[in-house]
Write a structure and sequence with these properties.
Length: 137
């Protein structure tokens, strides 16, 4: 029998989920059909444990998405800053090409990074299509 950790009011959600799963697994490892009270209690506990696990997984997915969004936002900002710097390049060919790219970037603006993840994805795809059409020669 696996030792069940003690739960406290300050226990993390993931710890509560783990302990709950351990308790359910221990219950399932034996035949409790003769104990109507305990069987009824676990019939109520099992769906709640599933909900808790799903909520933890959803929160983790949202957290992962936030990290990926931050990486993408930083890359979008870097492109804007790079092009802005190249506009001031002493070589006229480079400066002129950067100005044409900057004209496309101005249609979207830096506000793109403050949009929702899905909206930002669409805007970036559109931006890339527009950039493909820029003649920088």
């Amino acid at each position: 029998m696996e030792q069940v950790n003690r739960l406290l009011s300050i226990s993390r959600t993931t710890e509560v989920d783990t302990v709950t799963q351990n308790i359910i697994n221990e219950f399932n490892s034996d035949d409790w059909s003769g104990d109507a009270y305990l069987t009824g209690l676990f019939d109520q506990l099992k769906p709640e444990a599933v909900k808790l696990t799903k909520a933890i997984n959803r929160i983790k997915a949202e957290s992962d998405l936030e990290e990926k969004d931050e990486v993408r936002d930083n890359r979008v900002r870097a492109i804007y800053y790079l092009v802005n710097g190249l506009i001031h390049h002493p070589d006229e060919t480079i400066s002129s090409a950067a100005k044409r790219v900057d004209d496309v970037l101005d249609n979207y603006g830096m506000k793109i990074v403050s949009e929702s993840y899905a909206t930002e994805s669409s805007l970036i795809e559109s931006l890339l299509v527009d950039l493909c059409g820029v003649d920088i020669k």
